[in-house]
């Protein structure tokens, strides 16, 4: 089965499943020399399937995930915490609701390249079988199995998730 056909089957199975927001960080131009706060603008929605984001017409690799929240003054022990808080506040300024999950830094993948035997992000062909690298240190597993597992989790999440 082709990579595109596997994704089409997943889309059909997930038709009623919840989606998460895609966003893009936008830094506004200065007005009269005064900097304005960055914001995250909505760019669509996708089903979150582990290392992949599946939209109605594209496949994306995940990037950073934040939950939109109101800006608040806090003390941080790490610069990375401060940056994540700034992204979460930028998402809230961009119109996302409090607590809404937003995917940032995602990138477009090319399933046709995989069908031709190449690689596109975490997608690759292994012996002619479309596969996915499910983590940076993890090995490749067949894409069909991966999509079935992730779709099952999305459609019927474990208790407490």
Describe the structure in your own words.
- This protein has 161 residues and is α+β, with helices and mostly antiparallel strands.
- Helix content is 27%, strand content 30%.
- It has helices spanning 3-13, 79-93, 111-115, 143-155; strands at residues 20-26, 39-49, 52-54, 59-61, 64-67, 101-104, 107-108, 119-120, 123-126, 129-133, 140-142.
- Strand 3 and strand 4 (59-61) form a beta hairpin.
- Helix 1 runs parallel beside helix 4 (143-155).
Q: Which key terms come to mind for this protein?
A:
11 strands, 4 helices, single chain, elongated, alpha+beta, 27% helix, 161 residues
Topology diagram in text:
Elements (H helix, E strand, L loop, with lengths): L2 H11 L6 E7 L12 E11 L2 E3 L4 E3 L2 E4 L11 H15 L7 E4 L2 E2 L2 H5 L3 E2 L2 E4 L2 E5 L6 E3 H13 L6
In short:
Helices cover 27% and strands 30% of the residues.
What is the strand tally? Answer: 11
> How much is the average pLDDT?
90
Radius of gyration based on Cα positions: 18 Å
Low-confidence stretches: none
Could you estimate the helical fraction of the residues in percent?
A: 25-40%
Strand content: 25-35%
Helix-strand makeup class:
alpha+beta
Helix-strand pattern:
HEEEEEHEEHEEEEH
The largest beta-sheet arranges its strands as: 5-6-1-2-3-4-7
Broad shape: elongated
